[in-house]
Write a structure and sequence with these properties.
The protein is mainly alpha-helical and about 210 residues long. The protein has two domains: about 70 residues, Cytochrome Bc1 Complex, Chain D, domain 2; about 90 residues, Cytochrome Bc1 Complex, Chain D, domain 2, CATH 1.10.760. It has a two-stranded antiparallel ribbon with strand order 1-2. Strand 1 and strand 2 form a beta hairpin. Helix 6 crosses helix 10 and helix 8 runs antiparallel to helix 10. The radius of gyration is 22 Å and the shape is globular. The chain starts with a helix and ends with a helix. The relative contact order is 0.13. It comes from Shewanella morhuae. One of its GO terms (molecular function) is iron ion binding. This is Cytochrome c4.
């Protein structure tokens, strides 16, 4: 009994020593695999208009899935496809984890000619209630009550308006794919050009 106890104790001590000697990765440090991303997406994933959208605040699952889609050609983009191909091994997971952990800065409500921008009630209604007469669910049904996203659904709040618009248009013309059961394509194709503009601006300025 004493011998067994001694063996267990030595094993625990040995394991503790090994864990203590292992190098600790500092949190918040950019992995080398993410360094190519910063020229378009910013060092903290804040996005650089018009080069690249905001990555901060997106879930690691969403970022990882989109990078795989670029690698597999499911999602087409002349810049992102070769960039994604540079990520080998656990590179995708490192990039996804780093940018998803970055803090999202609150966007400033724009002021035009001394007045804050306001949005039509129809836009907010479409975002939060949808339009079931056209088979349009509310945007927040999938993207969360505050449009913060989660899982495979990206954050919309604070994202660049130009990026949201180009993605909705991409869903409409079929150049973006990979959505489950064609859900986003179905939604986007029911939006008018004016609604695309209004929703993009609304979510970009949502605090």
């Amino acid at each position: 009994m004493k011998i067994t106890t001694l063996v267990i104790s030595l094993t625990l001590v040995s394991g503790y020593a090994a864990a203590s000697d292992a190098p600790v990765q500092p949190t918040g440090v950019m992995p080398p695999s993410a360094q190519l991303c910063v020229s378009c997406h910013g060092a903290q994933g804040e996005g650089i208009e018009p080069l690249g959208p905001r990555l901060a605040g997106l879930s690691s699952e969403y970022i990882s899935t989109q990078l795989h889609h670029f690698q597999q050609g499911i999602r087409q983009n002349a810049t992102m496809m070769p960039m994604a191909m540079t990520l080998q091994g656990d590179g995708i997971e490192q990039v996804a984890s780093y940018f998803s952990a970055q803090q999202v800065k609150t966007p400033v409500t724009p002021v035009i000619r001394g007045k804050q921008v306001t949005f039509a009630d129809d836009t907010a209604r479409l975002a939060y209630q949808g339009d079931w007469s056209r088979g349009l669910p509310a945007c927040v049904t999938c993207h969360g009550p505050s449009a913060l996203g989660g899982g495979l659904f990206p954050r919309l709040a604070g994202q660049q308006a130009s990026y949201i618009k180009t993605q909705l248009l991409a869903w409409q013309d079929g150049t973006r794919k990979g959505d489950v059961d064609g859900m986003m394509a179905n939604v986007a194709n029911k939006l008018t050009a004016a609604e695309v503009d209004a929703l993009a601006t609304y979510f970009a300025n949502l605090k």
